[in-house]
Amino acid sequence: MGVTMQDVAEYAGVSLKTVSNVVRDYEHVSAATRERVQRAIRELGYRPNLMGRRLATGRTSLLALAFSNVTVPYFAELSRAVSVAAGALGYRVLLEETDGTLEGERAVIANSEAGMVDGILFQPSVMSSVEISRHRGDLPIVILGEEAAPLPVDRVMIDNVSAARDATEHLLALGRTRIGFAGHEAGQLSATSIQRMMGYQQALEERGIRPEPSLLFPSGEISPTGAVQGVGRALDAGIRVDGLVCRDDLAAIGALRALNERGIRVPEDVAVTGWDNIEWSRVTFPSITTIAPDLSGLAQRAVKMLVERIDGFAGVGRHEIVDYRLLVRESAPSALA
Amino acid sequence: MGVTMQDVAEYAGVSLKTVSNVVRDYEHVSAATRERVQRAIRELGYRPNLMGRRLATGRTSLLALAFSNVTVPYFAELSRAVSVAAGALGYRVLLEETDGTLEGERAVIANSEAGMVDGILFQPSVMSSVEISRHRGDLPIVILGEEAAPLPVDRVMIDNVSAARDATEHLLALGRTRIGFAGHEAGQLSATSIQRMMGYQQALEERGIRPEPSLLFPSGEISPTGAVQGVGRALDAGIRVDGLVCRDDLAAIGALRALNERGIRVPEDVAVTGWDNIEWSRVTFPSITTIAPDLSGLAQRAVKMLVERIDGFAGVGRHEIVDYRLLVRESAPSALA
DNA sequence: ATGAAAGCGCTAACAC
DNA sequence: GTGTTAGCGCTTTCAT
Predict the structure, then answer these.
(1) Which residue, of A271, A293, A315, is where some domain finishes?
(2) Do A114 and B49 touch (CB under 8 A)?
(3) Is the domain of A127 the same as that of A115?
(4) Which of A33, B235, B272, B283 reaches 20 to 30 Å from A164, CA-CA?
(5) How many structural domains comprise chain B?
(6) pTM of the model as a whole
(7) Cα distance from B160 to chain A (closest Cα, Å)?
(8) How many CB atoms lie within 10 A of CB B171?
(9) CATH number at residue B9
(10) Are β-strands B324-327 and B289-293 bridged in parallel, bridged antiparallel, or unpaired?
(11) Tens of pLDDT along A9-23?
């Protein structure tokens, strides 16, 4: 089929090994030989065959990035950040969608066929730490986010409690006192929701405000639509707030719609904060004040740790915290116009 | 390192070939042997090594899907549809982002390393048909979308002219007469923009309305923000419309914001249509009336054609058209409330 | 139905 | 600095 390294070697009148050396940029090759080989490569249109190399080295230069679903804007943006970070270290990224189901996550972790990727960046949704920590030991793994946190495994996240406190304090500083929390799961809470809710609660209590359970507006489904309904239902029941901390930007967008539908003004009547700083949060009307995690920092740390594992590092699990900022926009400005 | 097929063979007391037969579900294996081999596989924890198989077969079971950027919602949704369609045929999908640049697209087409993927689904942004048709003949390719259309290459798209006409006619049926077009490129128009604009123009002319160039609102950049500015500028210049056909949902979202900012009501004052039916278009306020391409149909056809090429089909380029629907929502309802 | 042997295209000791 | 020689783990004729 294609031109092989052997063909190039014969054409250039050198050995296989020399061609291999040239292709892999090995330094100890005389300039003349290198030039000759390169001409042969050009003239024959030779392209190295990935599979041969991979079989020989046992490396694929591929990293898996596993999360529920690329159509979730945060994950799409994460995926870009990771691709860039991985590219800088010579790796490419293979997306694995789990659909947020246990089976999906198990399939990813089980990794039934060996050698597809060199390692995996995994943002779990439902799988327990215990189960994750029992994954096949031969596949290096780094956990993204705050869900399951097996101690022996590397992990990168932002400080969710602290960020939620910042968002809540921002609303308090605006003079809001009846502040709700929206967008968490109606049933079993995710670790993400729990931590953000804890930060929300802490900020309120520090100001002497007792958090009211009636101001928690869960979403039937974690999506903008879920929040439209969750927040809408509460509003229709006559519950009133003057501030709303949303679990994520998608929930904030849903909340915005629910409020708009009922003629409630944002931020005048209700100030709203989101979380993730997805592109979309900049273009809503009003634009959304949000927690902006340092995505590229997160991606870089995660990829770096994973590559270290791939390269043989076998130390104890490292848990890294990356930065975030509160991005003040129209839905909860610094001071009301 | 890992357990090899040879290990399984020895453990089960059969030959390598027999194990291979069992692993690949070859039919002519006695039930007893098969059972024995499967037990060996289970007890040894054997997992087939992809690389060995790939080197031997020359197949990777990987398809590349190339487009500008996953954070564009349409592409994220396309990517899901393609993953599903490919999975049904035993393939996995590797995303290739081109950033919408010529270099990015060239890198994808050049495919400098052989054997990474078996074929490629490519949605070009800037590359010309001529250049695409000169791509390496040994990599099967299917083009997505309406940009470049080299005759010898398979392609799947929707009928953009007809869909744009439908959207425009919908606004006309609402009694709108000063209908603008928004969100196309300020400089060089993409084929996408051209076709959609042609459909818009045709619909107007069929109703005896002469399209006015002043009602074309280009975006500096193809993004919601670009449309916020493009539409905003026109409105500030005093230009008024009662309907707006947007090149895509992102532009419609930007237009919505530009109109909202100026207190112009949608749909009462201006009815708006989008394009793509991205998830987001359902949750804006008002939600967006949009052209909904049959994404899964598109993905299925595209993957099917690509796999046929991979399996050796060498006929002339096939150009397939898939369905779309006009989804009527709040931004341009059927009849005004 | 099963086994033996020859590669697939490349890398990596180890010589020279 | 360059060549020789083994594999990497699997599939695939071809025998049996």
Answers:
(1) A293
(2) yes
(3) yes
(4) B283
(5) 3
(6) 0.95
(7) 24
(8) 27
(9) 1.10.260.40
(10) antiparallel
(11) 989 999 888 999 998
Q: Does B265 touch chain A (CB under 8 A)?
A: no
Among the ranges A109-123, A133-147, A157-171, which has the highest mean pLDDT value? A157-171
What is the least distance, in Å, from the CA of B71 to any CA of chain A?
Answer: 5
Statement to judge: residues A284 and A201 lie in one domain: yes
Q: Which of A170-179, A204-213, B19-28 has the lowest mean pLDDT?
A: B19-28
Which amino acid type is present at position B178? R
Q: Assess whether B193 and B252 both reside in one domain.
A: yes
- What are A285's two structure tokens? 């009307």
- Same domain? B131 vs B108: yes
Inside any domain, residue A56: no
Which DSSP string do the residues of A142-163 spell out, in sequence order?
A: EEESSS---TTSEEEEE-HHHH
Q: What digits encode the pLDDT tens for the residues B133-144?
A: 888 778 899 999
Nucleotides of C under 7 A from a protein CB: 1-13
| Chain mean pLDDT for chain A | 94
User: Would you state the pLDDT for residue A208?
Assistant: 97
Nearest alpha carbon to residue B246 among B211, B213, B222, B214: B222
Residues A157, A159, A165, A169: is their CA dihedral positive or negative? negative
pLDDT digits (tens, 9 = 90+) for A145-180: 998 778 889 999 999 999 999 999 999 999 999 999
Calculate what percentage of chain A has a pLDDT beyond 70: 99
Asked if residue B335 belongs to a domain, the reply is: no
CA distance B34 to B26: 10
Residues near A125 by beta carbon (within 8 Å), at least 6 away in sequence: A67, A68, A98, A100, A105, A147, A190
Q: In chain A, pLDDT over 90 holds for what percent of residues?
A: 79
Confidence of residue B336 (pLDDT cuts 50, 70, 90): low
- Indicate whether A253 and A270 sit together in one domain: yes
| Structural domain includes residue B56 | no
Whether residues B67 and B139 share a domain: the answer is yes
User: CA B74, B76, B78, B81: dihedral to nearest 10 degrees?
Assistant: -140
pLDDT at res. A120: 95
For position B28, what pLDDT does the model report?
A: 84
Question: B291 with B281: CB under 8 angstroms?
Answer: no
Residue A334 CA to its chain's centroid (Å)? 28
Cβ–Cβ under 8 Å, residues A71 and A97: no
B38 has a pLDDT exceeding 70: yes
> A127 and A66 in one domain?
yes
Task: Determine, yes or no, domain membership for B57.
Answer: no
A155 within 8 A of A149, measured Cβ to Cβ: yes
Predicted confidence band of residue B333 (pLDDT cuts 50, 70, 90): very high
Q: Do A283 and B254 touch (CB under 8 A)?
A: yes
Residue B286 shares a structural domain with residue B177: yes
Closest Cα partner for B132 from B58, B191, B220, B59?
A: B191
CA distance B173 to B177: 9
**CB contact, 8 Å: A47 with chain B?**
yes
pLDDT grade, residue B250 (50/70/90)?
very high
CB under 7 Å from strand D: A 13-18, 21, 28-30, 32-34, 55-56, 58; B 1-2, 4-6, 16-17, 20-21, 23-24, 48-49, 51-53, 55-57
Note down the domain range covering A95.
Answer: 62-157+294-323
CATH code of the domain in which A205 resides: 3.40.50.2300
- pLDDT > 90 fraction of chain B, expressed in percent and rounded: 79
